[in-house]
């Protein structure tokens, strides 16, 4: 065939896209092999039937033609109202554009923040699509390490060292994969770097309804940052609507107007009946979001209980989101080697920390997305494997002969 563009051929950076263990687990499942699937952030409950009924009714009523490209007014207003309730920042429909899910919002925003060849910062560990999204927009991804020893929160000095000449910094709190919720001090440091270097802050807040400890704070709510912050949101996690592909960008009205131009030549709007269902979903209020999040709160407590009293496996701060990031370095294995042993020996699929960047080497990420007792059983089996591997490593160390010389 004819040659593809360099831009699309380099999306994965000539390497893995980070999902290798996920693909392998799916292949085993298709072959009929029973696998406990803990790789991907997909709720174990389905979209509520009342939301689907609203979607069906809207389609039957004829809302199946072209819908307003930036989003129907009712949905933009509902998103704005939710954002204002959560952040305290005055937000109107003019600050909102609707996108086909949070991933499309990330892509659109990186088309906006810079020109081809410009640098765009992101934090390591990161959601696996981040570098590829930046490359697909024609920008150069540049990672800033958030070290495990610092609780996986990025330090201002590290951001400062990387910021010269960049156009944006992508942050994610509550964080996937680590579960960390950034402190106000961390966000203030990010803001100071952004102001000194005139960066856009791209804030991925799709897990804002899943807070287990502390408080979610959007950088948009900090003094002086609203005019340089673009917030990514979605109904996928907050309302268990992953397949509906309904997300948004919140930002300054002039930025939203320009993103409208991009939507016109890319997706040309989201189906009206899905947007109507989004209006209905948001009208259920914060109590509904709490109910959708509750299974992950329980499983976070299960994780902490199972890990208590042992020293082989440690969890990163589980302050938010639907994941457990586990440090398994005491086993002597990399995250990838451990995840492979777990899949081969126990038929439990998790993602290695290496899928999320270099900062999470020696970790594995569990999606807490199966029924409580099955999740606890899988976690205990993981712990048993880790304990066996540590004993084997300790025994091997004791039998290493002393060097002569």
Automatic annotation (TrEMBL):
- Catalytic reactions of this protein: L-aspartate + 2-oxoglutarate = oxaloacetate + L-glutamate
Q: Write down what this protein is called.
A: Aminotransferase
What's the Enzyme Commission number for this chain?
A: 2.6.1.-
Residue stretches making up the Aminotransferase class I/classII large domain: 35-382
Q: Which residues form a coiled coil?
A: none
Question: By its UniProt entry, which SUPFAM superfamilies does this protein fall under?
Answer: PLP-dependent transferases
- Molecular function (GO) terms listed? L-aspartate:2-oxoglutarate aminotransferase activity; pyridoxal phosphate binding
What top-level branch of life does the organism fall under?
A: Bacteria
Which family does the entry's similarity section mention? Belongs to the class-I pyridoxal-phosphate-dependent aminotransferase family.
CDD domains attached to this UniProt entry: AAT_like
